[in-house]
Amino acid sequence: MEDARAFRPTGGGYALRRLLMKELLKIAACALLVVALSPVIGFWVVALVGVATFLLPVGIAFSTTFPKTWKHIEDSLFTTTSSLSVS
Hints:
mainly alpha; 76% helix; 0% strand
């Protein structure tokens, strides 16, 4: 029967396994971070959608009630020149 040491990988195999284990640990840590932060991010997404669904009717009511003021706001927001633009 042959010597069992002949079937063991050399130092390169150990280094490869060590590198693979480090990469797997990085992937696992990233996955845990994503799972831990997803409820927080989900909360903010839902909050922003809720604010948008509230502000859209408010904006429509404001523009209907005060059309001249709304026109002035539109003109000031959507002009092509501003103090920040480069001429």
